[in-house]
Amino acid sequence: MTETTLSHLDAAGNAVMVDVSGKAQTRREAVAKGRITMRGTTRDMILSGTAPKGDVLATARIAGIMAAKKTADLIPLCHPLALSSVKVDLIPTTDTPGIEITARVSTTGPTGVEMEALTAVCVAGLTLYDMCKAVDRDMEIGQICLHHKSGGASGLYERTAPPSR
């Protein structure tokens, strides 16, 4: 099986899950990042642990990890994977008040974990929003993208700069 034969369409043009049974089992890793921007007072409330709903960062971290594990249930045609590791980091930003969200996901298998990393970032951001919306409905979740991918036939990908639009 070659990478060029993989498709989410069958011979009749119908959507199908790609058959990855002929692909090699290799270590695969993906890193995705995103950001939630908010008022400075909201970020400070999160960091001080005084949010009305409790430990916002711990809850968002757990939500991101759980989401990565459930990606195949959320994204059509995505393969269910046995993940080796999921790590979600939430780092306060100072240039614009907010939290940078980074998810690092790895597995040993026949297909990559890009969707799991991206899903973890999205759900962690949504959890941050949900837990703080009572005090700041102006929060924005964005800049979600793949930063690193390794393993598999397509090799290494490193994001070097945002694409020009």
UniProtKB/TrEMBL annotation:
GO terms for biological process: Mo-molybdopterin cofactor biosynthetic process. Keywords: Lyase, Molybdenum cofactor biosynthesis. It catalyses: (8S)-3',8-cyclo-7,8-dihydroguanosine 5'-triphosphate = cyclic pyranopterin phosphate + diphosphate. It is an enzyme of class 4 (lyase). Residues 17-152 form the Molybdopterin cofactor biosynthesis C (MoaC) domain. Pathway: Cofactor biosynthesis; molybdopterin biosynthesis. It comes from the Bacteria. One of its GO terms (molecular function) is cyclic pyranopterin monophosphate synthase activity. Catalyzes the conversion of (8S)-3',8-cyclo-7,8-dihydroguanosine 5'-triphosphate to cyclic pyranopterin monophosphate (cPMP). Belongs to the MoaC family. NCBIfam families: moaC (TIGR00581), PRK09364.1 (NF006870). This is Cyclic pyranopterin monophosphate synthase. The gene is moaC.
